[in-house]
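Data availability (excerpt). The following record was deposited with the supplementary files.
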Amino acid sequence: MVELNLVDLFAAPGGMSLGFEMAGYNCRAAIDHYRDGCDTLSYNFPSAAVINEDIRKVTGKRILDETGLSRGEVDVITGGPPCQGFSNVGRVKIASLVRKGIWKLGNCEPRLIDDPRNLLYREFARIVVELAPKFFVMENVSGMVSYKDGKIISEIEKELISAGYVVDHKILDAVNFGVPQHRRRVFFLGNKLGIPNSFPKDCNNSNDRESPKEFVDVWGSIGDLPSLGQGDGVEEMEYDKSAFHPYQEWARAGSPKVFNHVARPHGQRDLVTFGHMQPGGKWKDLPGRIKESYGYRDDIFNDKFKRLRKDRPAWTVTAHLCKDGYVYIHPTQSRTITVREAARLQSFPDKFVFKGSRSSQFKQVGNAVPPLLAKMIALEIKKAMTQLHPSLSVLA
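Predicted structure:
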């Protein structure tokens, strides 16, 4: 059987790798500097060469040596370089630090952030040039499109076009691809086959029968998981309810137990606050006496607390979950969501196990590319390659 080989950069915890694996690709190498994330990758992708290293120290030759592949034999390179400096939230936060004299810039305009994390996209481009894959997929926050008035977008595309690739970018919202969460990200798609790039259509127009076919709300995503009080749960537990939604059946397939389902402990003040919040409620809706007990200003902390609605997809799951989780309060239980619930909202199946501390697990989930969205991109690329090379039809 012909295999499609994948190399995943900035790979932890493996959302992109998993999505491509679901579409029939073989993840040959996954590279990331984050130790816990690499432990997660090694556990869930035992046949992949997991390289726990700063990408700036990794050469294309090392990747080829680790995988046994030759230059040009990699079908797809994927990756999402760290994006904090490109995000709108990141810009506001760093601009504040600049005004306080905590953060130093190489220019005089806070919006043009001199953040070294913004340069890692160049490392992605370097590896693409060194390995010469047929396709590449790069993901980042949608704020990259407007960053420096689009100069970063132009620079990325120009560099890869000069390497012989047809390059396009498009903002995709994960909710349109079976993911129970609104998550808008920009995806760069490139190929050196000289063909037009094709982005996936939304799930309602998809012919993929293995993925959910409609928008999934929060309750359809997590409502079957064991109920927990604050501080309850263990890293492995039994299912105690039946699935009542197709998404839940999909998520549970092949998983013998529920993993990473542990609730954070909360103090009495938080429990009282949760009790005053309706699904969809926010900090601004709380009684004045509750707000006063925390001392937060309304104009700064308007979204300090947010309770998920059962009947809507979630808002974007972010790595901030590793801090406190107050913007992801469970819709019916007096607690914030667990790692497993966050993973469900990101479209990780239950058999995918996260390693490291609970805070690290939350960080990994928040930084991930939703696997179901990655799968749809992978299938679109496979279709394009199959049309050019009928010998790959066995994979279609």
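Summary of structural features: Strands lie at 5-9, 26-32, 49-52, 76-79, 135-141, 166-173, 184-191, 233-237, 258-262.
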